[in-house]
Amino acid sequence: MTHAHQTISLGFTNQPFPPGVHICQIFCSNDERQASLLKFILSGLQSKERACCFSDNATEQAIGEFLGNYGISSNDVIDSGALTLAKTRDVYFKDNCFDPERMLSLLTTYYTDSVAQGYPAARVIGEMTPDIQHISGGNRLMEYESKITLLLRDHPVTAVCQYDSRSFDGAMIMDVLKVHPLMIVRGSVVHNPFCITPEEFLTQ
């Protein structure tokens, strides 16, 4: 799958990256969040990749209107399976519980299904909500994020994780930085100096 795309475009930066990078975006405004999300989805679809979005704030209408400006019918790509849209709470908090193993299995299946269906690459963007702090299993979020980095080594889904700096305290944001190798800073993707390898993080 990845041999066909040695590098991919993330949409919100001109920097090329290999498929399977794990990136966090700590955003400060809804416009910042929306711009990255829409461009990430668009660039994936334009490259014939499979794209998936988990967000409580990005509406199907807004995404459809944006894609329509570039000649892409949201109905067509959703119906074909090239684009999947779902609410954060419906995916991450199924049965009012956060289960890292279920989520990791979901990502693995998404990748293997994409390969089987002939997509050159697959990408996911997900926005975490502060509800995670009050959900059973929510205390395992950083374990999950760290294990994503491990999973992507063999199942290279390109993953962007969005966190609202206005909804999480400084300690939580620092933890987020520890488990993402790359981060978005002023529209550029940079190597994250705060990141700890999964092997080290998971033994702490």
Order of helices and strands: EEEHEHHEHHEHEHEEH
Low-confidence stretches: none
Label the overall shape: globular
Number of domains: 1
- CATH H level, superfamily name: P-loop containing nucleotide triphosphate hydrolases
Strand content: 15-25%
**DSSP summary, beta strand count:** 9
First CA to last CA: what distance?
34 Å
Q: Could you say what the CATH architecture is?
A: 3-Layer(aba) Sandwich
CATH level-3 fold name? Rossmann fold
Largest sheet: 7 strands, mixed
- What's the helical proportion of residues? 40-55%
Overall mean pLDDT score? 95
Look at the helices and sheets and give the structural class.
Answer: alpha/beta
Strand order of the largest sheet: 5-4-6-7-3-8-9
In short:
The protein is of the alpha/beta class and 204 residues long. Helix content is 40%, strand content 20%. The protein is built from eight helices and nine strands.
Describe what this molecule looks like in 3D:
Strand 1 (8-9) and strand 2 form a beta hairpin. Helix 5 (100-116) runs parallel beside helix 6 (141-154). Helix content is 40%, strand content 20%. The protein has a seven-stranded mixed β-sheet with strand order 5-4-6-7-3-8-9, with helices on both faces. It has a two-stranded antiparallel ribbon with strand order 1-2. 39% of the residues are buried. The longest helix has 17 residues, at 30-46. It has 204 residues and is α/β, with parallel strands linked by helices. It contains eight helices and nine strands. The chain has one domain (2-190): 3-Layer(aba) Sandwich (Rossmann fold). The model has no long low-confidence stretch (mean pLDDT 95).
